[in-house]
Amino acid sequence: MIFAPEALVLLGGPLEATPQLKEAAGKARLVVAADGGVRHAEALGVEPAVWVGDFDSVNLEDLTRWAHLPRMEYPRDKDATDAELAAQVALKSHPASILFAGGLGGELDHELGNLMLAVALARRGVRTAVSSGPTWAFALVPPGLELDLEPGTPFSVVPLTDLKGVIIRGGRWGLEDAELPLGSGHGLRNVAAGSVSLKLAQGRAMVVANLP
Fold it and tell me: What ranges make up the beta strands (E) of 47-189?
């Protein structure tokens, strides 16, 4: 399994309920729905414990289908996204890992915000991934992470800052104690030979994998 989250946050972006995503979702001991993300619950076969947000992107069908869920409702004029509010709820259970499903695609500002939120959580010691189903993004911070990828899976290391001490093993192209400056494409479009080991001494990045 590519990722086994202890907490699952359902966001309202595009989502395809791929076998890998459904398997990962089923491992979560806590599910939090953020606003319109609740509509992904049925496709993933999960039941949210709580429904969070300002409820500006839900419809009557959502409200009827999930009327039994406990809600935490916020005003539309607020200083945090629904993803952040849902993450705050999830963090109260002290998870070692969080998956944001439905966090890629859609509106660019929210997509970038979700990715930055993932990195911020990883810096706090919470392993974090964001997925649309076919595409997964993993926050990469020191000391690194291990990914159990199928041979032939494309993956990329995208620097969000200057990176130092980069080690990539298990890809068609490896690196040893390398530097990848912000804006570098040197880590893009690698191909997994199997399990991939990614080490990082300094900096922050996203690892993007396109699953078959």
Answer: 50-53, 71-73, 97-101, 127-131, 135-140, 144-147, 154-159, 163-171, 175-180
Both tokens assigned to 207:
């690892």
Type of residue found at 158: V
User: Both tokens of residue 181?
Assistant: 């400056």
pTM: 0.94
Instruction: Name residue 10's beta-bridge partners.
Output: 33, 101
User: Cβ distance 186 to 156 under 8 Å?
Assistant: no
- Measured between alpha carbons, how far is 118 from 83 in angstroms, rounded to an integer? 10
Alpha helices (H) along the chain: 19-25, 41-44, 60-65, 82-91, 108-123
Structure tokens that stand for 107 in this block: 């509106």
Domains of the chain: 7-134 (3.40.50.10240), 144-210 (2.60.120.320)
Query: For 121-168, how does the pLDDT look when each residue is reduced to its tens digit (9 = 90+)?
Result: 999 999 999 999 999 999 999 999 999 999 999 999 999 999 999 999
Contact criterion met (CB below 8 Å) for 32 and 50:
yes
